[in-house]
Structure formats: structure tokens, C-alpha cells
Amino acid sequence: MPKPKKRGSNHQRGAGGQPRNVQPFSDEDASIETMSHCSGFSDPASFTEDGPEVDEEATQEDLEYKLKGFIDLTLDKSAKTRQAALESLKSAFSSKILYEFIMERRMTLTDSIERCIKKGNSDEQCAAAGLACLLCVQMGSGIESEEIFKTLGPVLKKIVCDGTASIQARQACATCLGICCFIVTDDITELYSTMECLENIFTKAYQRDRDTNGVSSTHNTVLHISALLAWTLLLTICPMNEVKKKIEMHLHKLPSLLSCDDLNMRIAAGETLALLFELARETDADFFYEDMELLTEKLRALATDGNKHRAKVDKRKQRSVFRDVLRAVEERDFPTEMVKFGPERMYIDCWVKKQTYDTFKEILGSGMQYHLQSNDFLRNVFELGPPVMLDAATLKTMKISRFERHLYNSAAFKARTKARSKCRDKRADVGEFF
Prior knowledge:
By secondary structure, the chain is mainly alpha-helical. The protein folds into three domains: 62-205 and 219-235, Leucine-rich Repeat Variant, CATH 1.25.10; 239-333; 339-414, no CATH class. The protein contains 18 helices and four strands. It has helices at 27-38, 56-73, 79-95, 99-119, 122-139, 143-161, 167-184, 188-202, 221-235, 240-250, 263-283, 292-303, 312-331, 351-364, 368-374, 376-381, 392-398, 402-433; strands spanning 210-211, 214-215, 337-341, 344-348. A hairpin with a 2-residue loop joins strand 3 (337-341) and strand 4 (344-348). Residues 375-428 form the Interferon-related developmental regulator C-terminal domain.
């Protein structure tokens, strides 16, 4: 493999000593450049992809060299360059385990993130908050993550509570605050303090002026949704006595959010209600909710909503979610889901587990499967045990060739076409008969 060129300054200069645009770190190119080295690690089976063998050690060195460059560029004078560097680091951190690399540079990364959140524009703050989440996911629940959170926690809280900051930045910081606190904090006081900060945000949705048609939407709705979901995540790790207090405080108020004009707020409120009922019944098998009839009526209306003024996609999504929520509230039932990753399977069989999975899926994206296989922290959260070690021979037997995949997909497509054709023929016959 050819040696990389000169590793001198962090950026080149054009005529007159002025910094030039750094082409590899534009919004699109930075992601592509990073992922060209990272995407192969998103699935262990990709190690045995058809083609010549890759020198993994050299690829790892090349990746680390690029990541060092991205870390340096988070201090660049250009806001566009800083943001592109943050996005590239996010792509790398979500697609590969880089514990040792990050361990050596965690203070530098923390300082860069803190500076970008404090002084950056809205987009830069969002990217920095997202990187902070991934940094804690990579480090897990050790003392190093606690140090990161001690530095970033106060900054995140300040942005979340700052009414002059952009809604997008406050939303990203609220999500980051909840996730980082979930990962690192063993201090119950800090947990309660963070939940109180988030409560102060989403409870404002209760206090809006209401008319006979329900709750009117505002531009703050996205912030309220993020704060509510982050608070719900933290509630899942609270002691039972605190859970009881929170249920008493919010269970009678949350149903008002089911009338919000915003679909995502209705869904967030519905799923939070299902989770609260699940936790309440765990703490008290004879739990009784006074307004159950009114609540189930609301949930049933949302589960069968046919309003013509709403988009079909939104109605399908809403009906699907609220059918499950209604089953949880009325019948104490949860539709078990199975998640496949490599040779393993994980069953999501309760609302607490679903809330946790959805949260980490949102920040890890396509890298979720890889982290479920390899990330000790996530495996501990979902009680998956130590990572399953697979040798190259086993991986090769699991991998099918592109040609075999093509044949399988073609056969499946033909089978679906035939099945649908038969159904159409039956309907045609019935129509002609009558």
C-alpha cells in the first residue's frame, strides 16, 4: 500500500496564505471518504466479500490517520470544515468500535465537542451533540465516560434551557443529555437533576392554551418531543419509589398530548403512556387508573383514525402504533419483535426494551447491528452476554455469494408475483360469478 503523503499542517493554504476549501471534508465527501474505510466493518460478513483480501492492519492505520485529521479539523477556523469533520467522526464512531483510539484522545475530543457546542452555529451544535452521544456509547459506562459527562453535562443543560438558542440545537442537546446520563451516571442526584431539567421542557406542552379541538402545535413541539423521550429513557433506570412518584405526577397529564396536531408528539405521548402503565403494573400488580375508560376511548380513536385531512402514510403509522399502545393499556400485552444481527437474535418483549432500542437505533443508524454484536456496553444493556467470537472460516460459511443472493431474490420475486396473480384471478372469478 502506498505511503500517505506529507503529514504536515492540518490544512493547505492558497495564494496569500489564506486557507483554501478542504475538498475531502465537504458535507458529502467527508462522509463518503470516512465510510469507504468504515462501511466494511458494519457487518462481520463483509470481511469475506468476494474479491481480493484486504490488509486489515494497513486499513486500520489508514483509518486512524484520517480520524486524527478529522479531530484536528474540529478546531479549524472554518465553520463548514468543523461541521464536516464532526459529521465524519460521527460516521466512523457509529460504524466501528474504536475504543483504544478514542481512549488516547478522549480529552481532546471532549474539548473540541465542548467548544463546538458553546461557540458553533446551530448545525455545528447539532453535529457536536450527536458526536458526544457516540463518544459515550464507544466508551461505555466507565469512569472515563463520567469525566466526559462532567465536562459536557453543564454545557448541554445550559443550551437546553436557553430560550435564545435554536430549537434544533436545543433538541439535539436534550437527546444527548438523556443518552449520556443513561450511559454514565451512577450518581442518583445527577440522574434526578437531569430528569428535572428535561421535565421543565416537555411539561410546557401541558401548559399550552387548549381549545375544544385539543392542543395547538407550536415551533417548540420538536423540542418537547425530544425532551419527553429522553426523560422516558431515564425513567427506565430510576428506583421504583421514584418511578411511582413520576407516574403519579404525569400519568393524568400525558393524555392531553394525544390531541396534539403533531403526529410525532401523539406517538411519543402514546408510547410513553404504554411504558408508564407497564412500569406501574410492575410496581403494583393491582394498579388502577381512574380515567381508564376515557383514555382507552382516546387511544381507540387514534388506532382507527380515518380523518381525510391527514396524509395516508401518517394515518397508517399512527394506527399501527396506537393499536399496540391500546393493547398495552387494555390487555397488558406487547407484540414481541425480533432483531437479527449476525448469527444472533434479540427479542424485544416489553416497552422498556423497545424504548431503549429505539433510542440507540436513532443515534447509531445502520451501525446498530454492528454495535449489538461488538459493543460491550450495549450488550450489557440488552443482556446479550459477552460478544460472540467468530473466526474467518465461520464467517465465510455464513456469507453467500452475490450470485446466490441474486438467484434467491429472483426466486422470491417470482413467487410473490405468482401469489399476487392468483389472488387477482380469484377476485376476478368471484366478480364474474356474481
